[in-house]
Every structure is written in C-alpha cells, then in structure tokens.
C-alpha cells in the first residue's frame, strides 16, 4: 500500500509508542522502527525523539503528522469515490460507541450487515462518551454513536433512536412494592452508578439533581454488566437503559421501580456524532441507513414486549 509508511508514522505519533503502534497494525516493532527510519532518511531530519520512556514528535514531526493525516484522508477519499463508481461497499469503517450502544445495539446490527456487505470491514471501539469524543478529535474514529451530551459546535450530532431509561431494583426491594413511587420515596437509598464521563451517569445525575434526591451511599462501576450484577446482588438501585435488562426483567432477577407523574419522563436520544470536515464515505452512508432501520425496529420490538 503506497501510504503504509504514513499510516505507520501517524499511529506511532498518536499512540506515542512504537510497541502499541506495532500491535494495532499487526506488525513487528522492528518493522515499525524501520519505516520510521526510512522516512527520516528520506526527509533528512529526525521526526520522532524516542527514549526508553518517551516518544515525542519533533517540530518537523509535528508538521509531517499534519500533512500525513491530510494525505491519508485524501487517499481514502479518492479510493472511496472510485469504489462508489464501481458500486462496491468496501474498506474499513471505524466506529466508536458508548457502552450501551456498543454492547446492545452494534453486535446485532453488524451481524445483520455482514451478509449483505461482505467486503466491508468494521472496527468498533467501545468506551464512555467522553472517551469516544476524544477518539473523533484525534481522527482515530470515522463516526461515533453515543448516548451522552457532546459539543454541537465541535461535532455534527443527529439522533437516531430514543432510549427509554428505567429505575431498577432487586426482587423484593421495598421500592418495588409501592404502586407509584415519588421523589420523596427515593430519598436515602444506596445507588449503583456508572463512572463519570458516561452518558448513563450524566442522565442519572440530572435525574437526581432535578428531584433533589439524596443518596445514602453510592457504588461506581465502569460497565453496564457491573451495574446489573451489583443491583441483582442487592447492593442498591440504579438508573439504566431498558435495552440492557430485557433478559433480567423476564427472569425477574431485576424489577422496575414504578414512578409517579411528578417524576420526569425518562428517555434520552442515542445520537450519531461525526466531525464537520469528515468525508462521508459510501460505507458510512450504508451503515447509517441500516442503523436507522434497525433503531426503528428495535424500538418497536421493545415497545411490543412492554405491552405483553
């Protein structure tokens, strides 16, 4: 590939590590080092200062990083335009997703797409909303799907699905026995929370601030699985997406806490996020078309389960 040395250089610069870059690119570390030396020989200057502990770009390296990124993007854009002429959806789509979407939406969606688009490679990075936004800034992701709030001055943001949020408790919890729970009833309980930076944590915080709920104590987990397990074990109550507890509701390992009309409607948007200057590839167009239909079908399926 004619831009391989540029991509290797960019990966080393972003990871600030030869070994991490080698792992990400499935190359040996000596091969990565050889490419960097060849680039430095070609330009007649050092591009990267490296020691046993630090890898930093030189001033020349900073310039080369910007230009290499521009060239790589132009190469991909040209390749994509040629593929569009040939009506072939190919290449690699780098998707960032916050935990709820990455764990409960994308696996099923990508599975559905695999048959129709066998030449499309999809790489998924799952992290909290704040970390995914950083991935977009650093050009490590082409598109992001998150449930948290992002800066709309910095990114293009478009909703694709409404996500219902619910309060959950273990079976037999006192709050599950109240027909209609008020804000007053929620005072003084132990809460299970997601980590700061996650969309679910942000939603929970706003909910408790709006109703002036005071917790007895809280425990923080950095995954949906951890939150569910903590609630099932009787550690506390939690605010979660209804998407993540379908099985546990059916088996009655978890119960919903019914809120009265004084409490706000619990819903948020799942949103598509991308940079304003990101080239919109054919692969991205196909993916978003499939995502839109999938989101609609998923919402209708959950609503039907709720009626039953």
TrEMBL record:
It comes from the Bacteria. Belongs to the LysR transcriptional regulatory family. The keyword DNA-binding applies. It comes from Desulfitobacterium dichloroeliminans (strain LMG P-21439 / DCA1). The keyword NADP does not apply. This is Transcriptional regulator. One of its GO terms (molecular function) is transcription cis-regulatory region binding. Residues 1-58 form the HTH lysR-type domain. SUPFAM superfamilies: Periplasmic binding protein-like II, Winged helix' DNA-binding domain. PANTHER family: HTH-TYPE TRANSCRIPTIONAL REGULATOR (PTHR30126), HTH-TYPE TRANSCRIPTIONAL REGULATOR CYSL (PTHR30126:SF39). Keywords: DNA-binding, Transcription, Transcription regulation.
């Amino acid at each position: 590939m004619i831009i391989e040395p540029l991509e290797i250089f960019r990966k080393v610069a972003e990871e600030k590590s030869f070994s991490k870059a080698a792992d990400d690119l499935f190359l040996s570390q000596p091969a990565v080092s050889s490419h960097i030396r060849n680039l430095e020989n070609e330009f007649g200057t050092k591009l990267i200062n490296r020691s046993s502990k630090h890898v930093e770009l030189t001033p020349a390296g900073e310039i080369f990083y910007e230009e290499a990124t521009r060239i790589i993007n132009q190469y991909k854009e040209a390749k994509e335009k040629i593929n569009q002429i040939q009506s072939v959806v190919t290449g690699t789509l780098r998707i960032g997703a916050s935990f709820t979407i990455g764990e409960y939406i994308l696996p099923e969606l990508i599975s559905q797409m695999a048959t129709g688009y066998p030449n499309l490679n999809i790489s998924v990075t799952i992290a909290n909303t704040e970390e995914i936004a950083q991935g977009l800034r650093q050009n490590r992701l082409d598109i992001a799907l998150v449930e948290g709030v992002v800066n709309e001055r910095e990114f293009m943001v478009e909703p694709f699905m409404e996500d219902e949020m619910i309060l959950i408790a273990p079976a037999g919890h006192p709050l599950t026995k109240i027909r209609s729970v008020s804000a007053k009833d929620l005072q003084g309980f132990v809460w299970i929370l997601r980590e700061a930076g996650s969309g679910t944590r942000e939603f929970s915080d706003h909910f408790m601030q709006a109703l002036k709920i005071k917790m007895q104590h809280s425990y923080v987990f950095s995954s949906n699985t951890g939150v569910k397990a903590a609630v099932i074990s009787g550690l506390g109550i939690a605010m979660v997406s209804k998407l993540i507890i379908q099985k546990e509701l059916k088996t009655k390992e978890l119960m919903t806490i019914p809120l009265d009309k004084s409490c706000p409607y619990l819903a948020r948007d799942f949103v598509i996020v991308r940079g304003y200057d990101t080239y919109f590839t054919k692969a991205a167009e196909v993916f978003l078309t499939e995502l839109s239909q999938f989101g609609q079908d998923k919402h209708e399926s959950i609503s039907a389960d709720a009626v039953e």
